[in-house]
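Dear all,

This email documents one entry for the complex benchmark we are building for the journal club exercise. For each entry we list the sequence lines for every component of the assembly. Then comes the predicted three-dimensional structure of the complex as a token string, followed by one or two observations. Please use this as the template for your own entries, and keep the labels exactly as they appear.
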Amino acid sequence: MIAVIDYGRGNLFSIGQALQVLGVEYLITDNTDIVAKADKIILPGVGAFGDAMERLKSNDMDRAILDAAKTDKQILGICLGMHLLATQSEEFGNYNGLNLIEGHVSRLQASSEDTNENSRIPNMGWRWVKVLNNHKYFAGIRESPYFYFAHSYAYRCAHSEDIAGVISINGEHVPAIIGRGNVWGFQFHPEKSGPIGLKLFNRFINS
Amino acid sequence: MPPVRVIARLDIKGENVIKGIHLEGLRIVGKPGEKARMYYSQGVDELLYMDAVASLYGRNNILPIIEEAARDIFVPMTVGGGLRTLDDIKAVLRRGADKVAINTAAVHRPELLREAAQAFGSQCIVLSVDVVRRGDNFWEVMTDNGREKTGRNVIDWVREAEEMGIGELLLTSIDSEGTRSGFDVELIKQVSDLVSVPVVPCGGAGNPGHVVDMVLETRAESVACASVFHYDQYSIAEMKEALSEAGIEVRA
């Protein structure tokens, strides 16, 4: 069973529907006992970092996730859920994260004089993800790796080997997929990235 | 520039997709489920649902339509029309919408945008602006699906709204809307220069050439179209092909 952590914000319905289409058993939950029993954990996210961490802490969900990370259970953070894996974030103030993949979250660079690029922030829309990792998860993804993004902040990984895929925004390489051991993060929304998104999502949850 | 997003706009009245000209004279053009699935299969990048009568009757009857779409359509969905409170927004997001478009309620009380952005994140708060051109550099902001005048110039309103923390701006020209005669390029340029968030131009596409010209002239990163797709004149794939042939990147 896959536990999708509910902390009262955002669109969990689509993640649930995607999991249903992919034929896996899942529970959308704020119950730490269920999270402890789950085979895999999805940490979704829409909203602001500080508010989300606050909500996780309020019912010891942060502890439950950290405990699960010590086992070999796979944990997948999506969008803000990925950011929560970081050491720290500076979104609307400074907040500590789960520190499962070392790094900090800060605002996307607004424009680049070097490349004369002026992409609008939030980064909203489909971006071509360059996959850097040879993991079996990404087999066949490289042909048309467009995924849907909606974010104003980016994960700056402390260790470059944790970065499995990047996009380029205003001359900057922004991590799109990160991974360390059993803990992974997607900056994009696989559940909103059409057939290719579902394909990648399936690799993670059905393997 | 990122790939240009091709967005299909579905104006909803009751159980049907409707379409008018200048937001009036609404005709039924199909069922939301059928249209949405067809556009998804053709490679649409995003869907935009607008409840055309919600703010008139003060109700939201679009929820079951969104929930049905979210079952087998896996691209972003924006929902607007009659959303007035944080609870209204939460209800739509819980049913599968990724973003909400707010117009009338934001004009009446701009703070709603800030509250919504803080609660749900800027990336899901879209300001929807419907305008009518009144003169040089003056496009009047209209509310209640184009029925009510505000006397406000779009140029002032979008700046104020951006400060409230919106994540995107849907810009509909009522003059061009439904006419299939091309975009108000001047409007799109002016508003795009004023704000740094993504702007989604809407209103006027009659063929792929209109969209190509608009994107080349305004550097818009997206476009929302209705009639051009609803009447089966052009498919999403044909639109993308035309953009691609003009050297504009689209999602394959």
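Observations: Chain B has a mean pLDDT of 94. Chain B is about 35% helix and 30% strand.
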